[in-house]
Amino acid sequence: xxxxxxxxxxxxxxxxxxxxxxxxxxxxxxxxxxxxxxxxxxxxxxxxxxxxxxxxxxxxxxxxxxxxxxxxxxxxxxxxxxxxxxxxxxxxxxxxxxxxxxxxxxxxxxxxxxxxxxxxxxxxxxxxxxxxxxxxxxxxxxxxxxxxxxxxxxxxxxxxxxxxxxxxxxxxxxxxxxxxxxxxxxxxxxxxxxxxxxxxxxxxxxxxxxxxxxxxxxxxxxxxxxxxxxxxxxxxxxxxxxxxxxxxxxxxxxxxxxxxxxxxxxxxxxxxxxxxxxxxxxxxxxxxxxxxxxxxxxxxxxxxxxxxxxxxxxxxxxxxxxxxxxxxxxxxxxxxxxxxxxxxxxxxxxxxxxxxxxxxxxxxxxxxxxxxxxxxxxxxxxxxxxxxxxxxxxxxxxxxxxxxxxxxxxxxxxxxxxxxxxxxxxxxxxxxxxxxxxxxxxxxxxxxxxxxxxxxxxxxxxxxxxxxxxxxxxxxxxxxxxxxxxxxxxxxxxxxxxxxxxxxxxxxxxxxxxxxxxxxxxxxxxxxxxxxxxxxxxxxxxxxxxxxxxxxxxxxx
Length: 557
Prior knowledge:
Number of domains: 4
CATH class of the largest domain: Alpha Beta
CATH topology of the largest domain: Rossmann fold
Structural class: alpha/beta
Oligomer: single chain
Shape: elongated
Distance between the termini: 67 Å
């Protein structure tokens, strides 16, 4: 049996079906779309959940001249009457706006014009159509040449021309409609882009007599008042909606079938832990991007561990913005989320970009709709129970918290100087005081499900960052020393002092015992030997115990 290639980064349905790639059948989306017909439908899902591939599939199904064999053996082919009525029966306008970005409005507008021009070029048959007048062909050439003055009425005009040529109303598919708005907000031309998109969509979707139906996808639902003004027959299907809940993302059975195809069944549990956990409507789904990338990696490296694929492709400015705005209550809520608990929040599914970071409440909503958090249920009063979906996103939060902590403490030079010097002066009280203050001002890991060494690594990372303030000190982490690997070795060159620090997490809260264990390990493993080899003459050994946001420090010479 032929082993199919995995479609890493391939979002074109036709390419996948023609070129021997593995395809997880999502053609039920076609049936559901037609059975739940609406003039304009918007699907909102996080990035990397298969929206573009789904839209490409819809184009392949509906477009006049399609190769019907692309759907052989797929779910939709079983519905013969629906296929006979709708497959290959409509002219289709398909735009993906994920590439519309730019530092200026002029640049972004130019990129949008190019995308529309390319789509017009795909319908070049209009230039020689006998059904079109010379005026019609002139209008077509204006779109084809990328005349930005006509951009707002371009889709409506193209719809009219396609209707005249084929005698059939048009299906309009717009993928990632909100990306230009996101980029515009980041680069300071948001209101100009809102005005442009409102004009483009208004003509194409609201006053277009040649429109059969339109489907849009995006990450956020931008408020109706800002973009979709006057659209009465407008259906929004978000991650809260039970309809279409399995059509974006992979289900358990789909992942199991995928793994079986590549003899990787034994990896199901770790894939579930790392990449599952999203709740769309009533469905539990995995992030497709993560699963495909990890399975592809496992094919060539069977012992490879799960990696962070999703966040590296989605941008994490949002998480950073959120953490920057965190007050004491929010920090506590983040700790609860990392600990595997849920929090209850009112979720607004309709925002404008210029509202997003004005309040923590809005940021919770955005974290939910963009896939950083997921739904565990809804309270009687309508609040959503939010949780971190999986191991991948949990690690992202922890990583961003560390970065945030490093940045915020780096500006506190006087206190950091005191903290570092306390280690040289064996001032355990000062170390406890200042390290404890830092722990109280950051976010800890109190997850009972996280292994003890993972918690130790978190505090280890914070301590390492604080000591790194002393540029003249040589600081080594997890270095081979004696008969083991010490947590932290510090070499102070001006007085040839070597410092050994062993950090323990006091799982049961007994910090005295944890400190004793740390000092005992330093002696048994002879961690000082490495410092002696490097020419140090004075030696200080610290056992440090952490528990939640408290610490204890014990010194030995």
